Amino acid sequence: MLTFGLNRPFISLLSQVVRLCTAEEEVVDYWNKIKTQLGLNMIVLGGLCREATKIHTHNPWITYGQPLHRLREFGIVSEEVDLLCSRPLTPNEIRKLCSFM
């Protein structure tokens, strides 16, 4: 196993982005299962509209557009960006996100 002198495997430092070109729930569920089963540090992204709808559910204050979607597709490393579609951000997380952008 590669560790490169670190106390954890090298693979845990990597993050993959899977960009899906479909809105079929079966396909999205398939990739999310792989992510969970293998314990991968992976982001499964649907199309722009699908992601915007998910984010609006938890954080209606933000306008999710193409530039933010592209950042996520390119694998931007930001905990606040990752949390947008999971739950409402705290005021401190909103501050960090706005500072970042």
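^ that was protein a. below is b, sequence first then the tokens
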Amino acid sequence: MHLFNLKKSLVSLYICLVALLAVVTFVEHVRGTEFVEKYVYHTVWFCCLWGVLAALAVVVLVKRQLWRHLPALFPNISKAMEEGKDPSFLSWWEP
């Protein structure tokens, strides 16, 4: 058993961030955008929270070898690769 479960930590941090963003949305409605930008969005702790979430996501992706399944997460890219097209080809970008 691992002392530090990365997947649970990632999910917990993500839930906390979503809850925080929900609360901040209501605070923004009451106090205004400038207040929320100054005291939440442009603070060091908020940027660090996003950074830790991104770092944990990368660690979980690598440790659990989920990078092997990335084409399944992006079906249009996967389909283009199967058809032998350039992976940067995305059908929804066409005019």
